[in-house]
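Good morning,

Both structures are done.
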Amino acid sequence: MQGMSERQYAAHVGLSRGAIQKAKTAERLVLYLDGSINAAASDARRAETTDPSKTRKPPAPKLKPVPEAAVAAVGDTLREQGLAVPAVGGGTTFLQAKTANEVLKAQERRIRLQKLKGELIERARALALVFRLAREERDAWVNWPARAAALMAAELSASFSDTTGQQITVEPAAMQKVLEKHVRAHLDELAEVRPDFR
């Protein structure tokens, strides 16, 4: 066999065997004496006799654009692991994206394992716990002046005297008001602190 078979030529030009048989019947292919196809001459004849408007172009692969956030996430993951990060606008290679994917899968598995071991808790649960503890701490401080005022007033009354040597008496109710004022001012300052759980 000097040239290609119908099947070989079909694979060579990217057409079906039936299309090659039709082209052979229409004498659009150049054949050797043994009936095999002369590939170079047949390509030239097909190019001359084929109407470009009637040729089917293979459909272009439909590639979805990769969101910038995904590309940035790949860069962040690689950077966190101390690996090479693509230059800005330089594009991410498949290998870099695959490496980032494997790193993220490993991190996800580690987190899942930590949850199973009880080393991690859910964010909502942690927020509720912190809120409850902060509320209990605040309530303890709000109630503290009422408990401590009488003791502090007694201690101050026992240790202070005026210039004439007479003992100064501190009223527990007045002491409680002063303490409450200062404790509430301090709690208001603390309320402005907003923890960031990101």
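Second structure follows.
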Amino acid sequence: MTSSTIFYIVLALFVLWMLYRMFVPVKGLVQLRDEPFRKKLEQSKHKHLIDVREVHEFKSGHIPGAVNIPLSQIGSRASEISKDSDVFIYCQSGMRSKQASKMLLKSGFPEVNNLMGGISSWTGKRIR
């Protein structure tokens, strides 16, 4: 086996591992589309709705009742979120909020509800 063959095998294994990490289900992460997310949010009595986009994105329009905690600050500001409440999280497309959800789950939150497709998929009211 040549060194270039070994390199390509290692590269392929790395890519497969990254894809696996990206798409494997995460315990405690509830991925919801627009309507189920909205219904669960409306039915929840004790909730935190978190927008993990940057401040300028939040100011351009957000879901009513949302608190802006950018992804870059979620680790240091997790104490602002009660672990006894229902946590709902979103971003622009669903990718940053999925990352933030994983961080919260690792911090001891039992369940996090992520809006699949982010605010781009949201059909409910928005504050502009």
